[in-house]
Amino acid sequence: MEDQFYCLRCGKYHPQSEKVIITTAKGERRLSCVHRVNAKQGNQATRDAFGKTVTERNKALSKEISKRSINPNHKP
Ligand SMILES: [Zn+2]
């Protein structure tokens, strides 16, 4: 356990090489780790991709709805 530190964010020990000091928006320095940093970046990318998918789906849906409302004979 000599070369490890306890990560409060993960709740477990990591090697010192995985230690990362992050600075919060308030300027506070917090102990973090590469796992948290990577997870945060990954989540952001996933969220961006998901947001794009939702936007595309909404576009397609509104197009579909307007098509249906134009057609008076449409029965679901
Ligand atoms: Zn960690």
Hetero groups in this structure are: zinc ion
Tell me how many strands there are. Answer: 4
Outline the low-pLDDT stretches.
none
Q: How do the SSEs run, as a string of H and E?
A: EEEEH
Query: End-to-end span in angstroms?
Result: 65 Å
Give the overall pLDDT as a whole number. Answer: 87
Which class best fits the helix and strand makeup? alpha+beta
Strand order of the largest sheet: 1-2
Number of helices: 1
Largest sheet: 2 strands, antiparallel
Alpha carbon gyration radius? 23 Å
**Which percent band covers the strand fraction?**
15-25%
What is the assembly state of the chains in this entry?
single chain
Determine the fraction of residues in helical runs and give it as a percent range: 40-55%
Give the overall shape, derived from the CA principal axes: rod-shaped
* Total of domains: 1
Report on this model:
With 76 residues, the chain is an alpha+beta fold. Helices cover 49% and strands 24% of the residues. Strands 1-2 form a two-stranded antiparallel sheet. A hairpin with a 5-residue loop joins strand 3 and strand 4. The longest helix has 37 residues. Bound molecules: zinc ion.
